[in-house]
Amino acid sequence: MSNAAVNALALNTLQRTFVPRSTRPILKVSSTQDSKKKVLFVTPEFADLIKTGGLGDVSAALPRALGKRHDVRLLIPGYAQVMNSGHPIRMVGRVEADAGMPACRIGRMDMPDGLIVYVLVCPELYERDGGPYGDPHGRDWPDNPVRFARLSLAAADIAAGHAAISWIPELLHAHDWPAGLVPAYARWRGLSTPSVFTIHNLGYQGLIDMSLRHTLAIPDSACHMEEMEFYGQLSLLKAGIAYADHVTTVSANYAHEITTPEFGYGLDGFLRVKARKGLLSGIVNGIDDSWVPRSDPHLIAGFDRNDLSGKAVNAAYVRDLFGLEPSSGPLFAVVSRLVHQKGIDLTLGVAETIVEHGGQIAIIGCGEEHIEQAVHDLAARFPGQVGAHVGFCENEARRMYAGSDFLLMPSRYEPCGLSQMYALRYGSLPVARRTGGLADTVEDGLTGFLFDEPSVASYRKAVLRAINVYRYPDLLNAMRTRAMATEFFWAQSIEPYDQLYHSLLLQRQVIAHIV
Ligand SMILES: Nc1ncnc2c1ncn2[C@@H]1O[C@H](COP(=O)(O)OP(=O)(O)O[C@H]2O[C@H](CO)[C@@H](O)[C@H](O)[C@H]2O)[C@@H](O)[C@H]1O
């Protein structure tokens, strides 16, 4: 069979991946096709132990959801927060030094629910004060290229059977730029293991200086625009896109948006080629089973759509925590990384309108220093009506979703967004920009309020619609009831991943058969 014929077969198979359940043909190649596949997730965050945003949530929830069908294990860096988490770590393997990347040990951590996490242990690279990507002041670690190339190469070493671990993955699933070199090393080392690369945020590309290629064992042949070169630099994100057998992103709408100049961050042309070949798809994120307002132990009081009394208890708690005066007006929440993407500057622009109409705002977030300062200044401008906490606290975030009436999410772009899904479940109606996954998950006028332009004027209209609905309790409750009934649990989102894995493994089987 010619390469073109193999590709055509693979493409056919991949296209089947996204056919609705009722019409999807059953793929049967061999009896092993039906058994659990070994999948290694490579990710820089894992919400159980360390998280800066939605990638951490997905890395914790998706393997567990897929674990019902496959043997999914994680590989994460051994950050101080991981090594000191209290979960026992047993040393099970080792990878050798390569170019400028040091040798590391591999530990195994068994989470209480049985999820197996491999930890790349290398104190000189990972055990530091600060976050996954930077120091306590938010400055990127200068050796991030080595830190995350080392992670990616370790994944390829495990897949190659070079890590002294008897478990060898049949498929590699890498997430965002820190794991972008996983498909690349797998290809450069001649592995037949297929790889999936998931883009959670195209805005972060992992750009590195071209001169680092020797340190990172990147072949010169990869340093051109068809592979990982990006305007004179090397892009770890582009490497993931270039070398993965299939690229996914986290909503159908964003999968389309990133092929346009407006959202493509200079990679839209490259992504259009992938899309034309059927090698780019959008699979919307889910949320994990813990997001149930009646049973969430983090809340001050539980509630559900038939009895919302507990919501008021959480609202009173949030008002108190943020220094807001008691009020019968609407409570707006912001739970967000404080970065340009999230449009916090737009929220600063509508704050006065909210306060003038009797509303209050509670903000929790951390990120860029000037945005942190701006939210502090906003709170100082409206004492008792706007409160801001700069920091990261999952408990408080959950109580804010539970206590607020509306969630403000005016993102400039949003690959999927989990915050709006959490808010919907907890009866807080999103006021959000019609972009990416927000457009896919919020129903305008039914479960939230969408606006089109990334401008204060457009946003203000949506905010005023929300305030208006708040004046009509029956209407508000009808919207809340519908929002709280939305089901975004992973159990419903894993089918496309499952189909994709099977398609790629089938493709490899066909190629192995004919070579
Ligand atoms: N200060 C704080 N304290 C406590 N919790 C906080 C917090 N700030 C944020 N969070 C939490 O972080 C998560 C944010 O997730 P999102 O998916 O909404 O956005 P993020 O941009 O981080 O994720 C990226 O990856 C995800 C996953 O694919 C995509 O959904 C998204 O569009 C993309 O931008 C939520 O769990 C939220 O509650």
Task: Summarize this structure as a short list of keywords or feature phrases.
515 residues, alpha/beta, Rossmann fold, 2 domains, 9-stranded mixed sheet, 6-stranded parallel sheet, 18 helices, 18 strands, disordered N terminus, binds adenosine-5'-diphosphate-glucose
For the largest sheet, list the strands in their spatial order.
3-4-5-2-1-6-7-11-12
Number of H/I helices: 18
Radius of gyration: 23 Å
CATH architectural grouping of the largest domain: 3-Layer(aba) Sandwich
CATH topology of the largest domain: Rossmann fold
Distance between the termini: 9 Å
Bound compounds:
adenosine-5'-diphosphate-glucose
Number of E strands = 18
Q: Give the biggest beta sheet.
A: 9 strands, mixed
Polypeptide structure, described:
Mean pLDDT is 93; it is low at 1-33. The protein folds into two domains: 3-19 and 28-47 and 55-74 and 149-161 and 170-287 and 492-514, 3-Layer(aba) Sandwich (Rossmann fold); 309-487, Rossmann fold. With 515 residues, the chain is α/β, with parallel strands linked by helices. It has helices at residues 3-16, 54-66, 80-83, 123-126, 144-160, 181-188, 236-243, 252-257, 268-276, 309-321, 344-356, 369-381, 394-403, 419-425, 436-441, 456-470, 473-484, 494-514, and strands at residues 38-42, 71-77, 89-95, 104-110, 116-121, 171-175, 195-199, 207-208, 229-230, 233-235, 246-249, 280-282, 331-338, 360-367, 386-390, 406-409, 429-433, 449-451. It binds adenosine-5'-diphosphate-glucose (ADQ). Residues 53-55, 57-58, 200-201, 250, 285, 335-337, 364-366, 392-394, 397, 414-419, 437 line the site of adenosine-5'-diphosphate-glucose (ADQ).
